[in-house]
Structures are given as structure tokens and as C-alpha cells.
Amino acid sequence: MFGRKKKKQTALPQAEIENNELPLSNEFMTFDNVSYSYEISVDDEEVSEGGEDAAGQKDDKNDEIKDGIRYVKALKNVDLTVKRGEFLAVIGRNGSGKSTLAKLMNALLIPSEGTLIVDGIDTSSEDMEWELRSRVGMVFQNPDNQIIGATVEEDIAFGLENMGVPRPEMVERVKWAAETVGIGDRLAKEPSQMSGGQKQRLAIAGILAMRPKCIVLDEATAMLDPVGRREVMKVASMLNKEHGITIVHITHHMDEVAACSRVVVIDNGMIAMSGTPKELFSRPAEMRACGLEVPAVTALAFVLREKGLEIPADIITVDEALPVLADLLRAEALPELSDLASMQKRESDRRESKHPYVFREGPNSVEADGITYSYNSDAKNAHNAIENVSFSAGDGEFIGIIGHTGCGKSTLVQHLNGLLKPRDGSISIGGEQMGGANVKSMRRRVGLVFQYPEYQLFESTVARDVAFGIRNDGLSEEETAKRVDEALVQVGLDPKDVREKSIYDLSGGQKRRVAIAGILVMKPGILVLDEPAAGLDPAGRDSILEICSELNKKNANTVILVSHSMDDVARLCDRVLVMDHGRVSMFGEPADVFENEQALEDMGLTVPQLSKLFHRLNEALPEISISRKIYTVEDAAGEILALTGRLKAEGEVAGQ
Q: What's the predicted TM-score (pTM) here?
């Protein structure tokens, strides 16, 4: 890494810092013209014109090459002030510089140019790292990478032991931190027995015990289910409001951004936008230009405004949208369109317009019959990870699987290509039961893409990595190259640009595409994807999911998608399988599944934001028959416009 050399700290005596007697100001953190550059050997990189480099940044004229080293500017001339007690969201596309910004905040990185002052300390000062990191704690994306203690108590105490905190005080701090984040009853538990959300709360407790003034959450909710995300956000909000801790929250979830006091958008290493959530979300075109999105209720408000309805442009939550739309419908809903029969006809028309999938048997159909599986089945404390699971996916169907962390989703899908063998029950592919001698051939028919598939890449070049799965198929070099190129094109990559690149010279999104291409090159009829869009920005997520949709629609692949995103599942899938504690709880079309909001909430799940809004409208306006089977902007706008008589013709649905 390339950073400016540390300079001696002279402005404040060491004693003042040790006694935490720094002069307080309202400005906790100040970036003054800060830039940061990563070092990349010119010999090891190939950056195509207008492309992305190994750090995920666009090729830029401000980058420098010196003595065979390329200095790639991840951040450029950043001026930013973070106030004490602020809850700041930092958002931007993958590779925009968000994580670099976060690492500068507690001196994991030092500015290449400019000055960063944190709580009165220049981060480039010598021997001040510990003081800075005791003031600014970092919580990263994967809690497993931060948890090292054999018990919850040991893990929380780890930082305090390094600080030399006396044992009586350490015991008191550990108990306080655990109780503050809601895991006080788990001090003797093993972290491995905790859910994802609980592990992330444990990571926060370990930081909190050191009594920081600021906590930086670097995509700390990216790997969590809806309940886990809510748990972390609730804890962060409480620490901010009740304890005055400054929170910097880096996220791709716009509903979390809406809960913050201010938002900064980073794009190509620079601050592109800044303001309150309302101010930024009321500029959807600019947000989209930065690879971002706005909450669904905000997008709905813009569609309705374009259709002539007087709706505020800065609606960002369900609580804000509910009274506005309720008042509108009370005043403008037409009685002849507000009865039950009219509502049922609208629901029927919407369903038919989506061309619902008709189940069919075929070579790419899947059937699970009574699958049961236990990890460590010989152990005394063994329990069934999945139990008596049965479902079927038709030939060419798009199935979504949802459920809380630890409910058995990943265990189930690993049975579909023989990675796991059921203790009881069976799996059939195209009517042929999987097992015994045919497992290998069956495995070729079912491609499994794991969460963070880029971690599966290991070859020296893209072409070699994609070709790995067909290397022993007896194909000629020409046929192998042709298959590799076809797979790369399927995932939206130009073979000429990436074929001979090192996988280390690809951006995160490109790596994920290459990993999927490595599955597609084997031409599986069935594609199983376990959280393929985890950790991606909205534009990257949509790009990956569009690939899945194209494979389903154009290639007739059967697709099975595991996801924590209810909106993605609702938008893409023909049917949704809901797992709860290892069992199938629901299985049906998205509109029917997401109508059961309370049941899903009881399982630790949620519904799309617009489903929640229309459930509330249905309850608030019993005199008007309002559909509860709403989960997209298109459906929501269509329902409002139909009730107010603004559709030009019967069956028209409002576009986004």
C-alpha cells in the first residue's frame, strides 16, 4: 500500500490523550483534501480502456505510474466532516472507495495526501494508532472474521485484555457491553451456536467494551437475514441515541439509509452527493447514475406524481407513505371501483399479465421427497438441519428459497447436486433418482453457485478458471475455447477483454460473473444460486440477477435462488419456498406467500416494503377493497391508479 509517512504528533501532549482530556468540538472527524492510493505493479495488471482495475476503480488520468508501480487513487480530494453523535450513512457502488474511507477513519490506512483529524488527533501521527482505534471501532461485513474467543465472554474481553484493563473492571465492561447489545444471557455460549445477527452483535459488543466514541459499520449487515439486519440497526440506533456514540454506517440497503441522519454518496473515489436521506432520495436520477436506488415507496411516489397525483417527492418510509395514500384514496377512490369484485378482477388481471408458470415435468425438473439431514449425526447433541423437506421445481421454473439464518436453506440446496446425501428421503432430477453410481452425471446437470462465488476462483487466468470444469471432457482446445467464450458472453463479459486476464485484476462484480461462467460452461440444465448478489451494490445486484433471469427465460434453465432479499425473490420467482427451522413452512406464488406478513414476521422474515404498505392501507381503509397482493412499484401504482380511475384502458399497468 502507498501512504504518506507518519509524522510526529506535536499539537497535544501524550498525557492529555491518555487521560482522554482532548478539547471537545462538534467536529469529531475532519477530512481535508484527503486522497489515498493503492500500489499495483504495472507488470501484474492489465487495465482496459474505461475498464476497472484490481482495486475496483476505474482507469483514471489522475492515477500515476512511477518506478514500475501504478498508484491507483481509490479516494480523491475528499473533504468531509463527521459531527459528534451523528448517524452517518456512506453509500456508493462497489469499488467506489467506501471501505477505503472507513479504514482511514481508524488509521488502518494513512492518507497519501491531505489531512485527517479524528477526535483531535492527526491520523498520520506516529505511535497514535492505538489511541485512534480505541476511539473508532470497526465492525466488518463477516462477523466470523472478527470473532476469536471460545465463548462470548472471552471474545468481548479480547480487546480489553490487550488494553491491560484490570480484571474487575474488565468483568464489569464485558457484562455491560453484552447487555447493551442484547446478548447478556449468552456470555457462556460458544459463538458458533449464534445466528448471523447475534454474531454481529457480538462483534459490536467487543468494540463497545473498549468504550469508543465512534463505531464504523463496514457493510456489517450485508450477510444477514432481515431479522439480523434489524437487530444490528436497532443496536446501532440505541448506541447513537442513548450513548451519544457516533455511527458511520456503510451499506447497500436503502431502508437502512433512511434511518440515518445524513448520507454521503461516494462515486469513483469522490463525494458525489451529500445531504439528508430525504434530500438524496428525492433525486432518483442522480442516485441511479451513481449505481444506487431509492426505497420502493419513494419510487412509487415518483410514478404517481408523473401520473398527475399530488404526492410529496420526499416520502422514504412506509409510515410516511401510509397517511398520504390513505387521504388520497379517501378523497379520490371511485365507489364503482372500490368493491371486492373489482379488486379481485384487478388481482386476476395482474396475475395473468405476468404469464404465470404452468408446472411441467421435463429433463430439468427437480423433486425432493422427504429429505432429512443431520450434521454430526453420531454426536449426542446432533439435530436435524432439515427434516422431511419435500418440494418440486418444474422444468424451466424459477424458484426462490427464503428463510432465517440457520433454517436449512444452504443444507437443502447442497443436496440438489449430491454434495450432501440425505439421511432419509430422495432427490430426483428429470424423473431419475439421484444416488449411487449416477451422482457424478447428475452433478453435471445441476450447477451450484455458492455465496461469494469469487472465493472459488483459483486459476492463473480467466479462461483457465472457466475451463476447469470441462478440462477432462476430451474436448479439443478449439472446442474448449469456444465453450469458455460462450459462457463469458452469457454472463455479460467480452471474451476478448477478459480471457487472458488474471483473476486478481478483476473487479468484485467481474469475479462473480467469472465464477458463474465456470458453472455455465458445463451447460447445466438446472442452476442453483446461494445468495449470488450478497454484498453487491444495487446496480451490480441487478446485473447478476438479470443474468439469472435471462438464463431462465431465454435458455429455459430451471433456476433455484436462495436469497435474503424479499424484493428480489418477489420480482423474479414463479414460486417461493419458505423454510423455518429445517422444515417447509410455505410454498406458493409470491403474491400468496407475501400476503402472510405476520406469519413471515414470526419466522424472522419480512415482506417487500410495498407489501407492508398495502397491508397497512387495507387495514386503514376497510371501506375500500384494496389488494394485499402487491409487492412491486408497477403493481402498487396500478392499484392506486385503478382505484382513482386514472388508467387509460382496462388492464393497463403503470410503468416505473
A: 0.83
